[in-house]
């Protein structure tokens, strides 16, 4: 009798395991970009720690937990391995975002999110040598953004995840906390990034930060510059 009960227990456990294995795995995804509502361009982001992120809350269930994904440097995002369903979407980063977004995700779904960036940053190449790159950085501030502009900078690295904290060689940096915003946006900042290697491809970005909660940076689109031999 004991052997029969033991065998029956194994059968029940096996059936339970099979039933558990029959649950569908998450096979949906959400992708898109953070878009400047005024220009229609992507809003570049910090590459590493301290960058913007996206949170998804599946509203089909009470008290859903946040599903969080980092935003990519070019302003795009991708979140795979989630279930089909209804979600609330909450982006956080160097921008003003007010509308609550609801999206029905079915399979691979795309959603572009319109925001107002705290700052718009441009970066242009001036000159280069075998061990340096000189750029000009300019900053503009949308009228909806009134925070003090705290920093302007330029960085370079031989990898595309370059940002204010991750770079090679020297970093160009100007503290502007005590400078009027009107003066900052009227100024062209020129930086020479030195201690670079000859004949090497560098990814270069201009950046700027307001005094915002989270200390998020806004960035220019990425430049690709190869130093001279």
TrEMBL record:
Pfam family, one: DUF3823
Xref: InterPro entries: DUF3823_N
Keywords carried by this UniProt record: Signal
Domain spans labelled DUF3823: 29-116
Cleaved signal peptide residues: 1-16
UniProt key word tRNA-binding: no
Official protein name in the record: DUF3823 domain-containing protein
Species annotation: Pedobacter yulinensis
């Amino acid at each position: 009798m004991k052997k029969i009960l033991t065998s029956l227990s194994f059968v029940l456990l096996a059936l339970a395991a099979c039933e558990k294995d029959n649950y569908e795995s998450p096979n949906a995804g959400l992708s898109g970009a953070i878009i400047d509502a005024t220009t229609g361009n992507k809003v570049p982001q910090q590459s590493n720690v301290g960058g913007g992120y996206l949170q998804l809350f599946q509203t089909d269930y009470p008290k859903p937990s946040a599903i969080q994904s980092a935003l990519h440097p070019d302003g795009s995002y991708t979140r795979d391995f989630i279930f089909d369903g209804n979600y609330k979407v909450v982006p956080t980063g160097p921008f003003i975002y007010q509308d609550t977004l609801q999206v029905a995700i079915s399979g691979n779904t795309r959603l572009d999110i319109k925001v107002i960036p705290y700052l718009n940053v441009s970066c242009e190449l001036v000159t280069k040598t075998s061990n340096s790159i000189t750029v000009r950085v300019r900053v503009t501030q949308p009228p909806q953004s009134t925070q003090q502009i705290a920093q302007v900078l330029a960085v370079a690295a031989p990898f595309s995840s370059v940002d204010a904290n991750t770079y090679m060689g020297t970093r160009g940096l100007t503290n502007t906390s005590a400078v009027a915003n009107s003066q900052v946006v009227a100024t062209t900042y020129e930086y020479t990034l030195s201690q670079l290697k000859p004949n090497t491809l560098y990814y270069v970005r201009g950046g700027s930060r307001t005094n915002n909660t989270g200390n998020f940076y806004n960035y220019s689109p990425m430049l690709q510059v190869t130093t001279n031999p």
